[in-house]
Amino acid sequence: MDWITTVDHKKIAVLYLWAGGLFFGIGGFEALLIRWQLIKPMNNFLDAQTFNELITMHGTTMIFLGVMPIIFALMNAVIPLQIGARDVAFPFLNALGFWTFLFGGLLLNLSWVMGGAPDAGWTAYTPLSSTTYSTTHGVDFYTIGLQIAGLGTLIGGINFLATIITMRAPGMSFMRMPMFAWTTFITSAIILFAFPAITVGLVLLTFDRILGANFFVVGGGGSPVLWQHIFWIFGHPEVYILILPAFGIISEVIPTFSRKRLFGYSSMVFATILIAFLGFMVWAHHMFTTGLGPVANALFSVSTMLIAVPTGIKIFNWLFTMWGGQVRFPTANLFAVGFIPTFTMGGVTGVMLASAPADFQFHDTYFVVAHFHYVIVGGLVLGLFAGLHYWWPKMFGRMLSERLGKWTFWTFILGFHLTFFLQHFLGLMGMQRRVFTYLPNQQFDLLNLVSTIGAGLMGVGMIIFLVNIYLTSRRPADAAADPWEDGRTLEWTIPSPPPEYNFKQTPLVRGIDAFWKEKTAGHKAMTPAEPVGSIHMPSATILPFLMSVGIFIAGLGFMFSRDEFRSPLTGFLFNNYVVTAIGLLITFGSMLARSLFDDQGWHIEPEELEGR
Amino acid sequence: MTTAQAEAADGTLPHEPEKATLEGRNKVLAFWLFLGGEAVLFGTLFATFLALRNQTNEGPTADELFHLPLVAAATFILLLSSLTSVFAIQAMHGNRPAVLRLWLIVTVVLGLGFLGLEIYEFSVYVRHEAFGMTTSAFSSAFYTLVGFHGAHVAFGVVWILILIGQLSYKGLTVVTAPKIYVSAMYWHFIDVVWVFIFTVVYLLGKVG
Ligand code: HEM
Ligand SMILES: [Cu+2]
User: In this complex, do B52 and A595 lie within 8 Å of one another by their Cβ atoms?
Assistant: First the structure.
């Protein structure tokens, strides 16, 4: 119950972590099934339809329900602490964001047991995703589930923007903000401007499928390429929503374990902003082969390649940070250092793909699959592992086992390169992506076998990580406030795990790396910016959960509104939108309740603070 | 209790009550951000409409369909409601809750008038012109864009009604003031969107 009603950002972080971890596990399992099917030519382990459903759900689940929530978990756990705040700007909305994400994700995954998963690829290209070619409710689960989950992401983005703008501790100017806070800020801005586009796209596709609209139906005057534009205007920025937080994590972990300041802090900030800006200008590089014409292709080609410049700046700054530092390699830093070459390779293949004429060759082959897995898994997932190992003691008060951590790292990264490095060559040799099997003796056999073995090894790495978590959770929570001893930012100045009010007294920030600065000046703690006083806390509430349940019910009701039912009663309830109305009533009723009964919150008094 | 809350307790209000507390300031800021997102949302709908506005699939065209005097009347009503919501905020800043409530009621009434005209317009299209969601890509884009705006107006009407109710039993405080201010921002935003709809959908449909 505690967990359903919580509005504490640290608990919401844990919720995001478990829920994201669960979906990540499901997505990983789907990946293993896909690889098992491709282990040998002409395999009949899966049929074509199931294979299509698996690749669609794997991509969708991983991106929207796996890695994004884990990013949100780290942001929720760390950002208020890093900027010296007692909370986020909108604790209530924070909880709402989590629950809509979870119920959206559940809805999407219900498709497996309710008559067929989406099968049109994670990009849901029309006309493949139209009712003509995708006849089950699968794509409806996709559009409505993602819509609900996306709502949560948007809410989270606005919340972090407001939090970072207004709640920084005294003295923390923007140019003194930790890099992870910066990348969270920029990521949230991208979310704010990219997600509404996919919101519209999903609405249009829903209307096409459920209300018989003609947006993407050529026969009715619609245009499938329009879908691609809308999807990628969102989709390309989305990949920066994923990678920028990883950049932020790496920029925290590497300096800490090099015992040095981050090299080129301000160039890092500007590179981040530039990447975000350019990220909005290059969507059509996913559409070179749709026939936009040579001029458009050339422009999008060049603007895409430009992104490599700020990205390169970042890579060199990390290398210069380590240069001459006293570098240590606990698991967190292993992952961070492993990130650098792996991600760089993904960037290089990105530039190759950005060359429009070459892309005509690479497009829809395993080369593209290799490229984006190098950036998403070799970049983002390694970054998340680094971040999780780094902040685990802060979140849970327990250090993860280093021995198991190193096993995780080596099995995972070895498995990763085995799986995906070879796929570059498979792609260059002409193996198509999204095809459920291939003919023997095209020189694909051995490489695919090895690729599948690599995937299995990654799975082993994940299992070791889970074992590590399990064993760690049974040990006493006795981590020090600054367990790595070289913590530079404010989260390391308070106990692990932090009390619910985070800071007894808001700290006064006197420079970049606020804590490091005090340490080098010979101080053991931050100077407080205020006397000890009564702290105002928001009350726990069930309303965010109820609102999300309502949306979930409304979504299901809408989805089945045109179906024929055997039982007249169910038919009546769905066909007349009664179910939809009930769902909306729950949601709007909860909104009304929230609006009418203002949350007075409660206070933690100074005596209580001292009593601890 | 902060000073702002103390002032509110004895009946006086700070100069800009919506920005007197951190919560209020956060609300206003976040709402600006939210409107940024809404702008992208409507931008995408507009782009879709522009791409598909001539794809009539042998159904009615914009020129055959639209009846400008009706739309102009709706436009006038909606713009007027923006003005009345400005009066409402002025009354709020002058700490005159009764006047504030009056202007909010006028705003709601105008909003309802606009919605009535829109529903009438849609029903004429559907019944007499055989122009429904499924007729053509143009019709889909039209109903989606204009309908989305209409849904926003409807939401705004209900929202402001709730705030009027709150004003009656909670009074004008530093807690209710940000809500009223934010709803006025929302109301202006949907009016601005309508100006674009009037231009891009109706005027361009008649002459373009
Ligand atoms: C220097 C940076 C990068 C460049 C130049 C680049 C370029 C490209 C190009 C041109 C494509 C389209 C290939 C095709 O479909 O034929 C592509 C696909 C893709 N990229 Fe990147 N990319 C870069 C970084 C990233 C990052 C950072 C991510 C994610 C974190 C990413 C994720 C993806 C994904 C998911 C796809 C495949 C989408 C699909 O068709 O399903 N890329 N990239
Ligand atoms: Cu892209």
Answer: no
